[in-house]
UniProtKB/TrEMBL annotation, chain A:
The keyword Transcription regulation applies. Residues 116-168 form the RNA polymerase sigma factor 70 region 4 type domain. This is Sigma-70 family RNA polymerase sigma factor. NCBIfam families: sigma70-ECF. One of its GO terms (biological process) is DNA-templated transcription initiation. The lineage of its organism: Bacteria, Pseudomonadati, Bacteroidota, Cytophagia, Cytophagales. It holds the Pfam family Sigma70_r4_2. The keyword Metal-binding does not apply.
UniProtKB/TrEMBL annotation, chain B:
Residues 137-151 have a biased composition (Low complexity). Residues 1-33, 128-156, 217-241 are annotated as: Disordered. This is Uncharacterized protein. Residues 11-27 have a biased composition (Polar residues). Keywords: Membrane, Transmembrane, Transmembrane helix. It comes from the Bacteria. The chain crosses the membrane at residues 54-72.
Length: 185, 241
């Protein structure tokens, strides 16, 4: 199904492009929203990502749906990092004093509480912490790759990740989500 | 093996995010259709821009090939030895015209040697000379392709520039085995003194306009107009006799 869709997109079929867009737009919007500050920026990143994807889809070799989604995610993530660099949001690293404390404005959705709350808490992380946490924990980058992408040292990446984890753990504890407890339960 | 607390947190976050629904976040104003309406013109512009660029490249390639082909044909026409050879043959076939009004044959050959400076064109010239026109210096061992060089060297020497040249026209074309056939004589270069000596041995033919009238010129009978005027000498009659 997706293979035919990709083949049609490679031939420039606009209907196939629309179907592929519909299939991945919301998912990739969430990805881009984890990196940038607000929704208009996330929409801009998503639009540029889809443009690049449709331009480069001729070089893409379809294997399975996971590979297609991973390819699209990678494009959007790279586009988000490029957006952050272009708008001088990088380097995004703050002193420890600025990030202590609990988040005040974390929206707590009613449905899909656990996942949506985690997602919202990640978005509330300071930009530097959030970027490194997203790249390392969710996208699976190594510290070396993160250092290259963000033009920082590996040690900075590691320290940012540790701080992001500590802050997230704090917030989760505050909201009653103990990771260890939950895992055992 | 028990996981570290950090890894536990990471895996828990990963599992949680995998459970996210395939929709935009709650409370979000994201509208996929609106974004698609912005994205579609960009995609169409991209595809049309690509078509235009392909058309431009194709047009440029056609123009470049046309220009290159024209230049190549011009160059090959300049280097083509048949033109020079034909003009040379025309000059040689009509020696009275060529020696008076046009360039001497030695200059033509010098120009030819200058044009045929390129190696490939020299090869082409050699083959052309062998196949179509046989022009050779009268040197028994010299191969036909050395004819140009030999004549060129002679033109630089203090010998008279206008040398009588004879041509042997080809009797057979495209002989199957060239190596068996002895090299043809294409030119015959000889010294002016030898030419004079040769001419002296031949019976002399006097042209009538070089005759002079000897005598008083008195004529008793009027010469009719139909009477042939040349080769008549009047005997003079002296009054005293």
């Amino acid at each position: 199904m997706s293979k035919q869709l990709v083949e049609q997109c490679q031939r420039g079929n606009s209907f196939a492009q629309k179907r592929l867009y519909d299939q991945y737009a919301n998912r990739l919007f969430r990805v881009s929203l984890r990196y940038v500050r607000n929704e208009p920026e996330a929409e801009e990143v998503l639009m540029n990502g889809f443009l690049k994807a449709f331009r480069a889809i001729g070089d893409f070799t379809y294997r399975d749906d996971n590979g297609l989604e991973a390819w699209l995610r990678r494009i959007v993530v790279n586009e988000a990092l490029q957006y952050l660099r272009a708008n001088r949001h990088l380097p995004l690293f703050q002193a420890d004093d600025d990030v202590e404390g609990q988040p005040d404005s974390v929206p707590l959705p009613d449905t899909n509480l656990d996942a949506e709350r985690i997602y919202a808490l990640i978005r509330e992380l300071p930009p530097g912490y959030r970027t490194v946490f997203n790249l390392y924990v969710i996208e699976g980058y190594t510290h070396r790759e993160i250092a290259e992408q963000l033009t920082i040292s590996e040690n900075t990446s590691k320290s940012q990740l540790n701080k992001a984890r500590a802050l997230l753990q704090n917030w989760l504890t505050h909201y009653g989500y103990e990771a260890e407890t939950r895992r055992n339960a | 093996m028990k996981q570290k607390p950090d890894e536990t947190l990471d895996s828990w976050v990963q599992q949680s995010l995998r459970q996210l629904p395939d929709t935009s976040p709650p409370g979000s104003t994201f509208d996929p259709e609106r974004l698609w309406s912005q994205l579609r013109p960009e995609l169409q512009a991209t595809s049309s821009r690509r078509k235009v660029s392909i058309m431009w490249w194709a047009t440029a390639a056609c123009l470049a090939s046309l220009v290159l082909g024209w230049l190549w044909s011009q160059q090959s026409a300049e280097n083509h030895p048949t033109n020079v050879t034909r003009s040379m043959i025309r000059n040689v076939d009509t020696p009275s015209v060529s020696h008076q009004g046009k360039k001497p044959i030695s200059e033509v050959l010098v120009e030819e040697s200058a044009i045929a400076d390129h190696t490939t064109s020299q090869v082409r010239l050699k083959t052309r000379h062998r196949s179509n026109v046989s022009i050779a210096v009268e040197s028994p061992s010299s191969p036909p392709d050395e004819s140009v060089n030999v004549v060129t060297q002679n033109s630089e020497s203090p010998l008279p520039v206008e040398m009588p040249i004879t041509i042997e026209k080809p009797t057979e074309r495209n002989k199957p085995n060239v190596a068996v056939v002895a090299p043809k004589r294409r030119f015959r270069v000889m010294h002016e003194n030898e030419l004079r000596a040769e001419e002296e041995t031949q019976p002399k033919l006097y042209r009538p306009d070089h005759f002079v009238r000897i005598g008083t010129g008195r004529n008793e009978e009027p010469i009719s107009e139909s009477y042939p005027s040349d080769l008549i000498t009047h005997l003079t009659t002296k009054k005293t006799q």
